[in-house]
What does this fold into?
Amino acid sequence: MPILSLQAARDLAEDALVRCGTARAAAASTARALVEAEADGLKGHGLSRLPAYAAQVRSGKVAGAAVPVVTRPRPGLIAVDAAHGFAYPALDAAVAGLAEAARAQGIAAAGIRRSHHCGAAGRPVEALAAEGLVALLFANTPAAMAPWGGSTAVFGTNPIAFACPLPDRPPIVVDLSLSKVARGSVMAARQRGEAIPEGWALDADGRPTTDPAAALKGTMVPLGDAKGTALALMVELLAAGLTGGRFAAEASSFLDAEGEPPGTGQLLIAIDAGAFGPGALERFGALAAAIDAQDGARLPGARRLALRVRAAAEGVDIPDALLSEIRALAAPDGAPREHRL
It folds into this structure.
């Protein structure tokens, strides 16, 4: 399987997006996010997304030239209109504004509307934790889960992410989908031509399936049964109802170039770790140390960090078919171009 350095992978992804009609700044932000997800082992949010992204720019489902518009409706609030472009530039703008606002006021929130797939939800909260902030993210996605006891999808898989700074070590990062597994994992299995485990998804008739294509036409099984759908409802209200984004059932798919822009939303909340007085970081560190001290226990994200270090040194492996497809997108004349280590 071919291996690309992280820089080569970013250059390749950026070139592909620009060739398909994305503005250079938005392409760079999006490529950076995809490759960082790839490096962290989150391949469902990595370069496997790029062909669909490129097709959506070409069809106009994603506005390739969009520039996020940032306003301040209240002192502690940041409103970001993603303008139907990729979510990553809007998330970058939200993180930059929140870091300043939360340090000044103790707490701040950013709402993003007319957005798109936010990728690995842990990325923006980890960036805020690196600034000494406790951070939460709620994102709604196109309909993929039915309410408990129902049969029609009205909730997305609706990721929730949390990050907390620690003294002298990387932050704790919790990133989870409210389906039993992220829908991106099903999409990646379909691209690889592999079956999915039973219990991940239901087909369009509500029957358990191991066929990823049937799963993508059906619904995802919620994490924690009824509790998962209750949390998905909460995310819909926070990420879309509050921000002005579209609810899951109103949003078009992130996976194809059909229809109008999805227009989903994200909500980020940042709290200065020192807002209530000194000592919080040390207490966070003490709890982390207590977990580390147990044999077999580990903090969330430990595997991801190890993979990140390895990818920085060795690069990332990309399946031949996917690499050929991305290289064709990136080439000026449609012929593959090399992006070497």
User: Anything to note?
Assistant: The first strand starts at residue 3 and ends at 4. The mean pLDDT is 94.
